[in-house]
Amino acid sequence: MSREVRNDTGSVMLLGIILVAVCLLALAVVADVSALFIQRRNLAAIADASALAGAQAIDLDAYYAHGASRATALDPAIVVRVVRANVAAVVAADGLRGVRLDEVHSDGESVSVHLSAPVTVPFLDSLIGERAEVIARARLDYRSAS
Fold first, then answer.
1. Which residues of 97-129 are buried (b: 16+ CB within 10 A; e: fewer)?
2. Cα 78 vs. chain centroid, distance in angstroms?
3. What does R_g of the chain's alpha carbons equal in angstroms?
4. Per-residue model confidence (pLDDT) at position 143
5. Half-sphere exposure of residue 142: CA atoms within 13 angstroms, side-chain side
6. Element (H, E) at 103
7. Using an 8 Å Cβ cutoff, are 101 and 87 in contact?
8. Per-residue confidence of the chain (146 residues) as pLDDT tens digits?
């Protein structure tokens, strides 16, 4: 009986190449997911700040005439102008591209800001062609002085 001796030369190298490829793919995925998280968090911060600025844009004439009360309301036209200015200032200061103010809504007591921006990731950018969207809300509220 003759036994054939199997030659394993090169199989460790093949396993090493596969391991390196898997590690590089995992690194790319982690980097892209981190980039997505940071982009969405930054977009949410812009939307939050803009909604808060809009909620602070009260009708100053009514405020100075009657003080802070339930009669003091947000003027939707002023809210939209303040939110647009806030978003434009942050986008210009940070050099962001593609940030879009999709909607601003005010009912006199609250402000809703809907922003979107293109998603860009370092490695798998060609696979992701979507936009990140966030909605932030702020409310004008008065407490009675005790």
1. eebebeebbbeeebbbbbbbbebebeeeeeeee
2. 24
3. 27
4. 60
5. 14
6. strand 100-106
7. yes
8. 566 666 767 778 889 999 999 999 999 999 999 999 999 999 999 999 999 999 988 877 777 777 777 667 788 899 999 999 999 999 999 888 899 999 999 988 899 999 999 988 888 877 777 889 999 999 987 665 55
Instruction: Extract the tokens encoding 59.
Output: 């009708």
- For residue 90, count other CB atoms closer than 10 A to its CB: 17
Beta-bridged to residue 100, according to DSSP, are: 116
The C-alpha atoms of residue 87 and residue 15 are separated, in whole angstroms, by 51
First-to-last alpha carbon distance for the chain, in angstroms, is 103
Q: pTM value?
A: 0.78
| Pick from 78, 133, 64, 142: nearest CA to 111 | 78
- Give the separation between CA 93 and CA 122, rounded to whole angstroms: 22
